[in-house]
């Protein structure tokens, strides 16, 4: 079947922030230790213990930001334990993730060094659940205050005279759950209090992100918006927070204990995963609509700072480490999310996939028994979509009903698309979620001229296909000749279960 669509090249949509392609690294399993950070004694190429092949792979994606140190871990993390000589840093138990000992060798200085190597902005999640206002306030001072002050002196004594720049600041994480089991009303008060004492030092400007809702909890968002709606007029420093977060994971299995395998899944499970992934649109639209009631000018951002697939851990691995493989199915989950992100870029200002290395829907898997580092199919979607960073979104208007199929009680639209333009180039992303049927798309390009296009495709023989140290390129992008432009019409053939990007000069 052919799907007809129109893109008006001269009708600008909202700007797609590069921060929609953000990342998340928690002290969880082998994400930080054994992923990003291998320690100063490692035989692998590293700088200050930070693994350089991982850094380079993420630089190649233009990684815009990195959220740290959690997740749930953030609300048990005490930053002063992670500064100073490593042999004097106290050990704690990571109660959330495997009950393992955390030696605090990766702390504030190491994280900021990692961000500098990556060329990424830090996004720090402060501890509201078990910390204090003073502790958070002093962490901000330690990181960002120049000149002479107690925290600036402490930072200098630990080897860093100049302050860092930190913009993104999280006021706790999942306050409705692991971040303190608070009610929305109680948390709103806490966020106001903590936010008040997170100061702007010098010319550093914090962008404070309050811990938002889980999935479809619109009442949480409504409460936070109601509690902060009027504060902008009252505080000379501005609002105590500037954005709300949202967490939504793509989970398919019937129960939390049985989320299904990351690699051994049926076609029915594949479609159920796609239905779950596509639900992100309903959720973002729903939370955005609640926010619109209080903030029509859209000055408060929505930040989806945890998203991605969550399957059963790989057999034989620590259940608390959340290590899962990553298949072509994960790649299509990511591509569908990005189309939605582009559509809601006027409210959605940041998103962070969970998590970057060795945890949940990772970009990168490292082998604990060798030097191998594997780029996952999800990594390749981030790479192929890089041209959307800070681009102007262009609406894709359908002229024919898109193909769909029934999946249980739901209807899954099986072709997903989005488009943008930047620096005189058009970029169109197209996903065919149908596991067996191809699709053909014709896009009438109006209001501009595109003479020729180049395309790339990410697909494989089966949706279960994935990359391993032994076969790292099983699912990798290839040049694709299934796209052409004639008389202002772009035609793209989409094989089953494929992701295609098409670009051309405008
Ligand atoms: O990403 C894993 C965990 O999922 C995070 O720590 C928590 O915020 C969420 O529940």
TrEMBL record:
EC code(s) of this entry: 3.2.1.55
Organism: Actinoplanes oblitus
Alphabetized Pfam families for the sequence: Alpha-L-AF_C, ASD1_dom
Keyword Hydrolase: yes
Assigned keywords, A-Z: Carbohydrate metabolism, Glycosidase, Hydrolase
UniProt subunit comment: Homohexamer; trimer of dimers.
InterPro entries: Alpha-L-AF_C, ASD1_cat, GH, Glyco_hydro_b
Record's protein name: non-reducing end alpha-L-arabinofuranosidase
Catalytic class of the enzyme: hydrolase
Residue ranges of every copy of the Alpha-L-arabinofuranosidase C-terminal domain listed in the record: 305-498
Reaction catalyzed: Hydrolysis of terminal non-reducing alpha-L-arabinofuranoside residues in alpha-L-arabinosides
Family indicated by similarity: Belongs to the glycosyl hydrolase 51 family.
Gene3D superfamilies, per the entry: Glycosidases, Golgi alpha-mannosidase II
PANTHER family found in the cross-reference section: ALPHA-L-ARABINOFURANOSIDASE C-RELATED, INTRACELLULAR EXO-ALPHA-L-ARABINOFURANOSIDASE 2
Keyword Transmembrane helix: no
